[in-house]
Predict the structure.
Amino acid sequence: MTAKPQFLIGATASGSGKTTLTLGLLRALRNRGFRVQPFKCGPDYLDPKHHAAAAGRESYNLDLFMAPPEEVQRIYSREGENADICVIEGVMGLFDGYHNLQGSSAALASLLDLPVLLVVPARSTAYTVAATLYGFKHFRPEVKIGGVIFNWVNSPTHYASLEQACRDVGIEALGYLPPCPELEIPSRHLGLNIDSDFCFEDFAERVARQVEKTVRIERLLQIASCPFTGPQAEVSPTPVHSLRIAIARDEAFNFTYAENLHALARHGNLVFFSPLHDKALPPADFVYLPGGYPELHLPELSANESMRQSIRRYCEHNGKLLAECGGMMYLCETIRDKDGTPYPVCGFLPRQATMENMKLHLGYRNIKLNGHEFRGHEFHYSRLLPEGPELATVGEITNARGIKADTLIYRKQQVVASYIHFYRAGQGSLLDIAEAVYGNNQDDCQ
């Protein structure tokens, strides 16, 4: 068993600066020549995209609701094996899970036996953080607080007081970030900005330079060095079928879990296409339309009539397709923007999607389909209007606490569509979810 630096970046609460620090550390370590493997605790779709851009390696979600502990350990070991350093960005506050501690960053750090780098906002406090740190250190002793980095530190004098608080509690201070607008990621829409007008490369380099100045990186890597368990047995990534799997990926459709793609690759060849820029759907036995931001690209999506017709023809000719959230909206007759202006889209599902009167729908989902159980996550502001011909629904959907959710899974011919972002099923894949709805064998796709 070898040792390598590996740690989880947690925080006292959401909005404490976890993501900014994570991105700065990833880029700084990459700039030093390290192979850094990023991960994200929880179901977030956006943070992993920033991780990948900062580290130059695909970021994987580690989610203790959507996957059993042994699968989370397997993914972590598999992806971390060929890295020099493993960095996990936590979710919300350190002890916040879908039900108390369950699914929290603390639970993940405990499962993987990793130290926590705690981010503490210090904008309006100084020595008082000693009480906060004391609580985090002693609340769950099995969760090891390896060190602290403070955010929004006004001056060296301010930091000296924070360092004294750390010494009195017995937790090492590893540095800080100052208050600076240039170190903040602009937020918009469902989350962090991923639009072309935000120059991520410049931002990542700015934060990395600041991290190099005020964070004790060498000491962090020393503290975080701990035994690394190699990969556990897993289904071979060698394709077991020869399916042609077409996946939408562009500015409008990009909310994909890396592990879902890893699992799909066992079934054949993955081919990516753009509903925004390509003229037609590539030849396919199975099509995956993930979520994303179609509402931000409605004029372009609607103007690409040849692609819209190509996807509709595929669906009408009994093509097998799974559509999630924004992908489902794209299959509707129209998508209305927040002002109510309708834009024609594929026209296969007899529904209208709208961004009018936006309301957040958020949470984990447990799905029962024909004797099978799957997991997923829902996060959207749009809705489908109920008017239109009857559309078949399947499955029983509950939230993380077992309470019935009003989320629906639609089926029309061989198309499955829902606001749920599905997660691979254990050792299976998204094809297994589709198969549970179709009620037939995957081989029939070929």
Remarks:
- The longest strand covers residues 2-11.
- Residues 200-214 form the longest helix (15 residues).
